[in-house]
Amino acid sequence: MYTSLFVPYAKLKSSSSLGNPASASCPLQMSPSRVVVRFGGSFSANCTSLSDQTDGMGWESPYGGVDLTQGVTSLLFTIDSVPEWELGPMCYVNSRDGDQCTEILPVTVYKMPDSVSLRQNSTTVKEGEQFAIQCDIVNVAPARNLSVLWHKGNKILNSETFDDSRPSPVSKSSVLTLTAHGGDDGAEIWCEAKLNLWPGEQGPTMMRSKSHSVTVLSEFSSPFSAIVISSWDQCWDFNCFGVCFRDV
């Protein structure tokens, strides 16, 4: 069983490098410098002391902690299955002169959405009118790194991020409001959920909704290809735009 032997020394020093080249006051180096891990996933990180006065090292953490180990200048930290949404494992080094140096490993725990879907009240809109489409993202973490991208054909219409510091999964919605134009008739619109945690194209594939096809009715268009009626008065029952096909 892991037992913490970390002691808050009076001369404790904290590294400000966070995995960058070690500072003179606290010569610690992390590899990797930061961790992005799926909830329930595993990871390892190595802490190295660059001081020739190192007496011993350890990792302080409720999960995967490593007891003070004498006579080493490098110590591995491992978690087989990440059980929490917030982790801050801390490497500490005791020097022969009684100083203690510490550094916290930045860990981001993520979860991809359960689903990404679109909602719209009506599938048919009038030209010139505004309409809204809602994108629902269910159970994603962390929300502060979530981006929602709106697409129409091969164009990105809009993107949205969220000011939410909660580390555990939450559900989010993004609403896109558009004005219908004749050229939009038949256009495919969809949304995409992306976690901005990796450089470039690294990381899991973005999750996207099904495409939604927009039907735009112009002033002289009809939802019917042809309507044959026996009475002119019946026209409004069939075509709300007043364009009628009359049997002559």
Automatic annotation (TrEMBL):
Q: Which UniProt keywords apply?
A: Cell adhesion, Disulfide bond, Glycoprotein, Immunoglobulin domain, Membrane, Repeat, Signal, Transmembrane, Transmembrane helix
Q: Which residues form the Ig-like domain?
A: 113-211
One GO cellular component this record assigns the protein to is: membrane
Q: What is its main location?
A: membrane
Compartment(s) of residence: Membrane
Bilayer disposition of the protein: Single-pass type I membrane protein
**Pfam families assigned to the protein according to its UniProt record, in alphabetical order:** ICAM_N
Q: Which SUPFAM superfamilies match?
A: Immunoglobulin
> What InterPro entries does the database record attribute to this sequence?
ICAM_N (IPR013768), ICAM_VCAM (IPR047012), ICAM_VCAM_N (IPR003987), Ig-like_dom (IPR007110), Ig-like_dom_sf (IPR036179), Ig-like_fold (IPR013783)
Origin, by domain of life? Answer: Eukaryota
Q: Which GO terms describe its biological process?
A: cell-cell adhesion
Similarity remark: Belongs to the immunoglobulin superfamily. ICAM family.
> Which PANTHER family does this UniProt record tie to the protein?
INTERCELLULAR ADHESION MOLECULE, INTERCELLULAR ADHESION MOLECULE 5
Name of the featured protein: Ig-like domain-containing protein
Which source organism?
Oreochromis aureus
